[in-house]
Structure formats: structure tokens, C-alpha cells
Amino acid sequence: MHKPIIEWLEHRTGIQTIIKDFLYEDIPASSGWHQVIGSMAVFSFIIQVFTGILLAFNYAPTPGDSYNSVKYIVTELTGGRLIRGLHHWGASIMLIIVVLHMLQVFLYGAYKKPREATWMVGVVLLLITLGFGLTGYLLPWDNRAYWGTVVTTQIAGQAPIAGPYLARLLGGEGRIGVVTFARFYALHVLLLPPLTMILIGIHVYLVRKHGVTPAVGDTAPRRKFFPEQVFKDTVGVTLGFLILFTLAIVAEVPLGKLADPTDTNYVPRPEWYFLFLFQTLKFFKGPMEAVGSVVLPGLAVLGLFLIPFIDRGPLVRLGKRTFAFAFAALALIAWSGLTAAAIRTTPKNIEAADAPAEELQAWQQLTPPELQGIGHFRKENCKTCHPGAGKRGIGPDLTQMIPAHRNAAWMVPHFKRPSQVVPGSSMPPVQLGDPQLNALSAFVLKLTPQNEASLMSAPDFAVQGASIYEANHCGACHQISGAGMKMGPALDGVGQHRDRAWLEQHFLDPKSTSPGSIMPPYKFEPQEMDAICKYLLQLPKSGG
Amino acid sequence: MDPENLPHEPAVELSPTRRSFYIKFIYGAMSAIGAALAIPAAIYLFFPPKARKEGDYVEAADLSRIPVGTPEEISFQRTRIDGWKVTSEKATAWVVKTADNQVTAFAPQCTHLGCAYHWDQPTHNFVCPCHTSAFSIDGKVLSGPAPRPLDKYMVKIQGNKLAIGPLDTHA
Q: At what angle do helices A230-250 and A37-56 cross, to 10 degrees?
């Protein structure tokens, strides 16, 4: 049935012949498992393109919004965590595969004449892979991304002569902001992918032009690429994919806090495969720094390029390439040593301070304004975006705020104009008056991972009672939990010597229960009376 | 002599069973990988975002200010979740209060193509300016191309306050 279609296609385009020529190419009998890595590299690039496009469907390429959209992808979209996992771990795996491919070619001496150009295109592809890692690192716009990129752009700026121009090109002059972000994004999705495709095309064309490198003295009958070698390639690809897929499911990709240029506690570190460069930098101090950051890596890249011209001897058996093996082993040892040293010297990023031990229900130890804040928190539906309980929402976990934000002076302006205080924040302004915002801030500042569950479950009567207490300025004379004035008696533990009837009578006519009291009478609605009495009667004795 | 151009013996064919095993494996593994990528991608693209609480009620109007029997257009602030953004936006509703204090809040778009309709006091109808759909005071289609009655918001009456919730999809 489909035969006529295939014949038509073949006649008009010659596609079948092209595919057949590709698959039935003659390859040396000595080809085998060691040559599957190149196919794996192409495949890993395809995975990156596929998952990258999927991510871009739900990604906003601007600082701030990018963070929110990545969070949206991993928390709101089914399968989003998997897609991001595939892209994130795929990047690392692609780099490993590209390096292994290069190592194999190096050890076998497959770069020798006439394949020098193939090798050099390969070196460019390795650099592009690193460029993908570097530019992609910024795109989630969390602290890790931000601070990692600050360091990167500064290093680029140190390059001799080209430094200032590079820094300007990356938009990283002075500070990282929207310009750097746009440049990194454009490089990552507009420039590098088509460049990679073109170079892979040239690379594969060159491989085909010169044929797969045979082993020395291989006179065995040649074979066809398909199906035996394709089968081996498929096994390699499948294995790589299984590892990647498992990683994407098992290992959660970190998404830290929104990038915060004022967070002085953050310890920036590059992605693992750049750690060796980071560590190298530590050996060069002062004016010598550019040697470690730019000159040495530059020379190393130049050396890689020139390998086919340095080693010009005839192809020899793998077992006789002692020098190549020694060189590769040395490079591997140096790389692992530097990486290990970098990991060992990385301090852990510190998180928020711990809460004091609790005996009572945590909410019982709140002051009236703090309790009132819970009311605003509920009424303003803050929970929609800050779900708490370790759950991920659109907004950050309020129990994990950094110390610099743990004060009302930061919090209240933030409530009024979130996007001015945190650029890129998608939080709508909280439309409340100053006293209410202060109460809301007082409550939010109290939140810790330990007390969160209790505070969030504070009963309505307590929240309402505290709000009535605040609305009537009871704190102008009374004290609860150390908050308020001492003109009247403190109200902590009032339930232990007064009952409901006494309280109600006291509100209606203070002098009838406490002769000489200067408290004015309060005529509450029945429901308000109920709430404030219940609230007062549960107050713990010594406050919190 | 060029070491790569040594004379080769003639090519040998693979045994048919081996060949067919290779081909089956290639197709099988490639299909499995394709499915492992395509299925999550389809889920990712076609499943709606996970349950978001957009169903909250917001206080929209003081009921005592709404006249009985005449629709009143009220505006209120509402939180809208738009992908990864949460915005506070102005929303409007046409509110009808009956003598027995029953309240209906209509979404302000015509059910035909989404134009904003208005209340026409002389004819006592809601009239859409785009394609002249007309609706009665209880939202029923009287004339024009509108395919269904006006959409309603869920409402709650709390004392004297009218709270407006999400669209009533069961209506």
C-alpha cells in the first residue's frame, strides 16, 4: 500500500538512496563498541533540543519571571519535573559523553592525517557544549544561577585585551541584570543550537569522507554500517538514555531561592564540570589571576586544537600509545584532584535559624498583633502562593526567609510594592492599611519550619479575638505576651482566676467587677464577645 | 603503501538470524526511547496545571447599595492566576437583586463572542452591541446569536456584603 508513496518520494527526492548510502557504508572490520560514543553524543544533543523546546513552551526569559516559570514547570505541570530533570542531567551526561568520545579518539590516535579537521571541529563542539552549560546555568535565575554567573562574567572580564569587550558582550559590565540575561538566553537557544547542528553536520561529513579509522593492519573483510554497528550504537544510546531517565526521576533538580543580589550568605559555585577551573583559580593571586582564569585554559584549548599537528607520527597499535595513555591519565588525575579539592572546600549554604523549643501550642504564644496578622494572611489568601508545610507554591517558603528580609522595614514596603522590592516578583500588592500590614508582617516574621503548622492552625476565635483586641486598642493599657502597656493588669493567664461570666460583665460595666477601674465599657456584638472572651481565657500564664 | 588502503578480502554477509535480531533490537529500542520521550511530553503539554485555588470568594459590593429589580454593574479586585503569574485585576459583574434578597451576578461578557453587553433600561433587557443578542433580566437568551444564557458567578451573601466567587459551571 505504501510502496507507491515510497517510490514516488524516491523518484522525486532520492531520499531512499541517501538513507541507503548512509546505512550501507563500508566500515572496517575493526570497528566496534569503542566507536559508539560518537552516536551517543549526537543522541544526547537531540534529547537536549527536544526537552529544551518543551521547557521553552512554559518559560519566560526575563529575570524574576524566569524563576517563577521554572517553578511553575516543576510544581504545576504534570511531567514538568521530569522534562526539566532530563534537560538538566542531560546537559551533564552530554558533556561526559562528548569528553569520552574525545578521549577515545585521542587514545586511538584517530585524529591523525587525514582526519585533523574532523578533530578540530570536534574540539569546537566540546567548547560549544561547555558554552551551553555556562549559558543555561543562569536561566533558572535562582541564587545558584545568579551568583555562578556573576563569577563567570567577572572571569571573562579578566581576559587579557579582550576582557572588557567580552564583559560588554555578555552584558555583565558592573552588574548582572536583564541585559546579561537576554544575552545568555539568546546564546543558549538562538545561536548555539543551530551552530551545533551545522558543526555536527560537518563533523559527520568529514567522518564519512575519510571513513572510520581502522585499526593498524586491518585486512579483514569490510562490513556494512547497518545493521551490526547501528545495533551497537543503539545499545550504547539505550544505556545512556536509561541512566539519564533514571537520574531525571530519582535525583531532583535543585531550584533554590529567587536570585537575590543582596544575599551575602550565599556561597557561589559553578556547575561540577567547571569546578576544576574554579579551583585552579585559587593558585593564582593578584595580577597573576588572569593566568589561572584565562591564559591557562586558553593554552589548554589551543593545545587540544593542535594535537594532530604535534603528534604527527604514523598510526600505531593502541597498546603502543603509552604516551597518550599517560597523558590522558595525568589529565584525569589533575581534573579529579582539583574537583575533589573544590568540593571539599565548599562550605554548606546556611539556612534560616531554628525556633525555640515549644511547650504550649505555638500560636498561643503570639502577641495580639501577630495573631491579627494570621487573620490578614487568611483573608488575603496568601496561602494560595505560599502553601507552607514544605509544599512548593508560586511564592517562596515563608519559613525559609533569609535573615536580611526578616524585619518589618523590609517586609512592609514589600507588601505594598512587591515587584519594586523584589524585581520580577509576581506577587500582587497587599492592599491594606499600615497597621494591618504591620500585623501581617509581625505574623510572617514569626514563622519558622517548627511552628508553622501550629501557627497556621490557630483557631478562628483566637484570630478574631485578637483582631477585636487590636481594633479596640486594648494594648494601650494591657499587656499580652509582653506586648502592650502596663496601665491595666497584664492579661496573660487571666483565665486561671476569671471566668466567662466575669469577663462579660467586666466588658459591659468595668466598675461593677473592678471598683475604681478606669477602663471604659465595651458593648460587643454577641459573636465578638464570644471571640474575645474565648481568646482571653485561653491565654497562657507567663506568655511566650 | 597507505596503511588504510590495504587489500581487503571480499565482504561477508551476516547470518540471517543475527541480522534480523539486530534490526529488531534497533527498532524496539528506538521505539521505546521515542515513547519514553513522547508520552511525558504529551502529558506535559496537554494536562492542565495542577489544581490551583482560584475558587476563592472576594468581597465585591455592599448589598444595601444595590437597587432591587435593576441590574447594577459593580467592579471589584480579584486575584487571577495566569500561568506562573498572580495578578490582582479589576473585574466587573452585573448584579441583580430581587425583592426577596436573592442575588445573581452575571459575568460581563456576552456568551456569543465575548463582547461586553449592557443593561438597556427602556427595553428592560441586557443588550449586546456586537451582534445584537438580547438577554432577559434573569440571563435567558431572548434574541440574537447567543448560544446560551449569560454566565453566572457563584455568590455568597455575608450579612450585608456580597462575595463573588468563580464562574458557576454547573448552571
A: 40
At CA B28, angle to CA B25 and CA B33, rounded to 5? 120
CA B116 to chain centre: 18
Q: How many C-beta neighbours within 10 Å does residue A520 have?
A: 9
Q: Cα torsion for A326, A330, A333, A337, to the nearest 10°?
A: 170
Q: CB-based burial of residue B13 (10 Å sphere; 0-12 exposed, 13-18 middle, 19+ buried)?
A: exposed
Which has the closest alpha carbon to B145: B113, B116, B123? B113
Interface check for B79 against chain A (CB to CB < 8 A): the answer is: yes
CA distance B88 to chain A (A): 6
**What number of C-beta contacts closer than 8 Å exist between A and B?**
124
pLDDT one-digit tens code per residue, A428-456: 888 888 888 888 888 888 888 777 877 88
Write out the E strands in A385-542. 479-480, 483-484
Work out the minimum CA distance from A230 to partner chain B, whole angstroms: 7
| pLDDT tens sequence across B45-72 | 999 888 665 567 888 888 888 888 899 9
Amino acid at A295: V
Rounded Cα gap, residues A372 and A364, in angstroms = 12
Cα separation, A146 vs A422, in Å, equals 14
Which has the closest alpha carbon to A371: A455, A494, A453? Answer: A455
Chain B residues whose CB is inside 8 A of the A394 CB are 81, 84, 86
Cα A104 from Cα A318, distance rounded (Å)? 11
Q: Tell me if A363 sits within 8 A of A539, measured CB to CB.
A: no
B/e letters for B52-91, b = 16+ CB within 10 Å, e = fewer, are eeeeebeebbebeebeeeebeebebebbebebbbbeeeeb
Residues 6+ apart with CB under 8 A from A54: A83, B41, B44, B45
- The mean per-residue pLDDT over the stretch B147-162 comes to 89
Report how far residue B85's alpha carbon sits from residue B72's, in angstroms, rounded to the nearest whole number.
31
- Interface predicted TM-score of the whole assembly (ipTM), two decimals: 0.79
Whether residue B7 has pLDDT greater than 70: no
B147 phi/psi in degrees, rounded to 5:
-80, -20
